[in-house]
Design goal:
The complex is a heterodimer. By secondary structure, chain A is mostly helical. Chain A is built from five helices and no strands. The radius of gyration of chain A is 23 Å and the shape is elongated. Chain B is mainly alpha-helical. Helix content of chain B is 85%, strand content 0%.
Amino acid sequence: MSTPTISAPRSKVGKSNFELNSWLFMRGSGLLLVVLVFGHLFVNLMVGKGIQAIDFAFVAGKWANPFWQVWDLAMLWLAMLHGTNGLRTIINDYATKANTAFTLKTLLYFASAATIVLGTLVIFTFDPCIDPNSTLDVCTNR
Amino acid sequence: MWSWVAHRITGVSIFFFLFAHVIDTAMVRVSPETYNIAVETYKNPIVGVMEIGLVAAVLFHALNGIRIVLVDFWSNGPRYQRQMTYGAGVIFLVLFVPFVIRHLTNVFGH
């Protein structure tokens, strides 16, 4: 009896590792998001007066500090990409018609890109003194 | 199996909320008044109670996600996956109960 021959793996040349990379990204971004989102919820909802304290001045106070700008920016990008990739997987699983899957994913990518751009612009162009009559400290002391 | 289903449901729910949350925060670029009106919605008692559901979804998704990472990357992960499910349940309660008390106090006690 001859040893069964195992055919060599079919060529991987030019094949992308996208699915492996996105699988890894979900785990890496997920762990970072646990820290970012728990910190966000703790500072905004648990400390002080919690949700009652949140208003324009609260946001101005937070974003006066680059630490919170970077925190929120990282949270925005990671959460959007994590969620987009998650929904992409779900569409692949449940939308059996190729056209339906394509349409849904196109919509998803446009909505995600628009939201990431919007959120990024908001963080970077935020102006605490957008109201010329503002009584906030940063606006009256200059 | 059920944690897998719940992971998907909570994930999609949080993701859809995220779109709304980026848009309400974007109101800071319109005017302080517009932002304050938008954020006032979150202080409404009915929405305030819905936020408890949102935080429950975030906590479940985060803790179950950590369990998935441990099953995938820790050599003993698959063997202890059931114990880790119970562990996640305990941590969930430890974090969730204080949050509910604190949040309800803030929403209704002003």
